[in-house]
Amino acid sequence: MKLDLYNKKGKKLSRKINLDKNIFEAEPNEHCLYLAVKSELAGRRQGTSKTKSKSEVRGTGAKPFKQKGTGRARVGRLRNPSRVHGGTAFGPSPRSYDLKINKKVKKIARISALSSKCSSGNILVLDNFNISDIKTKNVETIIKSLKLSDKKITFLCQETDSNFYLSCRNLKGINLFRAQDVPIHQLMDANTLILDELSVDYFNKLKNN
Q: What is the model's pTM?
């Protein structure tokens, strides 16, 4: 399929860019999308919560009084969870929330995300993202010229331009990723994906990679 190509001033160029139908017109696989997004979001969890068990809290582990003959309930130690200042029963401990998924599932999920955005008309292609200086206003002007103000936008490029990255990182709802590094949940979360020509070339070859 062919898609219109724009410049940074929002003007449509005379030439069009070709999008591989196997990538941008594929049937989305919702289950692969679910698995990939679940894995990415789980991997962002720190897993550092920790409480002390009865063997870790401060205090003696000795039996406080004899088993029988006192008229009181039997007690094995002062720091068991049922007592004041005791340890926590079944409390959290540091762990990893990482969920492994296969490379093939990740690829299918990435293709599904791109085709879903393309079918809904939420993909634009610019000739490049290069800007001469570091100014947030430059990126705001580009967004305004494309009539995408107040939208969540993800810019995708093959080679990151440092001026463009530093200019857009302070804007709310605006993200910039390299095409090969973009998380799948960012593709799905954005209202609009804006690609440069090199990133389109990368995605066109995604099926063969």
A: 0.82
